Amino acid sequence: MTNQDQHKPRRRWLWGAIAGGAAVVVAVAGLSIYGATRGGPSAEPQPTAVPSTPAASGVDGCLGGAELTAQKLVDAQLSAPQTPEGAVSFAASFARYTLQIPVPTDSKTVATSNRLNTQWWTRWAEQSTSWSGPNPVSATTVNGTYRIDSYTPDEAIITLALPWVVDGAISPSRTFEPTVTVQRAVGGNWVVSGMDASGEGNKSDAGTTAIPGGC
Using CA atoms, how far apart are residues 127 and 103, in angstroms rounded to an integer? Predict the structure, then answer.
């Protein structure tokens, strides 16, 4: 662990609930850079099935590859199975892409393929620019875990625990713990509609199952 890894970033949350259907605040309590809300009203019908929490198997912890570009993430989004494990795999890839500083320069491609509104992406970039912690910093699914909080064929809510990566070194103790909501699009693929990354801790039990094949 580096000295930077031991440094706990100044907590400063700028996200509140956004009116007009944008209800989920996204922040990283230890990273304090991202706020995400649920996108605007969806044309998709809301799930009617009773939520359940099936065990996912066959999760791909490196969906999209180790070096995620926006296009690779979109390709991963289209290829993720329409199953609990597919939802977990895409949620983990989306978290890996967004929980990194500096901000990826190709993020517009990702923005147009998901349901997070424009305000989310704008604040994501602004808060990343003002970040005063370790730089660069990112998240990895190596040694990461997941928990399926609820699942229907139309929506899944997944909580992840992803170790920090600082100066290329994986932290043995510090984790990002985002909760990602994905919904089924008209075409059948998963899209991110909400992300609450206010959880950040020290290898907590945020996830209950190890993510296989992480990167």
Answer: 10
Beta-bridge partner residues of 184: 190
Q: Which residues of the chain have pLDDT under 50?
A: 1-55
- How far apart (Å, rounded) are the C-alpha atoms in residues 64 and 215? 10
Between CA 25 and CA 114 the distance in angstroms is 16
Tell me how far apart the alpha carbons of residues 103 and 189 are, in angstroms, rounded to a whole number: 25
Distance CA 168, CA 110 (A): 24
Residues in the chain, total: 215
The SS3 call for residue 65 is coil
Distance CA 80, CA 87 (A): 7
| CA neighbor of 179 nearest in space, from 112, 71, 87 | 87
Give the list of residues 6+ apart from residue 67 with CB closer than 8 angstroms, or none. none
Q: Can you say whether residue 20 is alpha, beta or left, with left for phi > 0 and alpha for psi between -120 and 50 degrees?
A: left
How many Å apart are CA 57 and CA 62, to the nearest integer?
14
User: Is the pTM of the predicted complex or chain greater than 0.70?
Assistant: yes
Distance between CA 194 and CA 34 in Å, rounded? 12
Q: Which residue has the tokens 């020290």?
A: 202
pLDDT tens figures, 22-64: 333 333 333 433 443 334 433 433 333 334 344 455 899 999 9
CA distance between the termini of the chain: 18
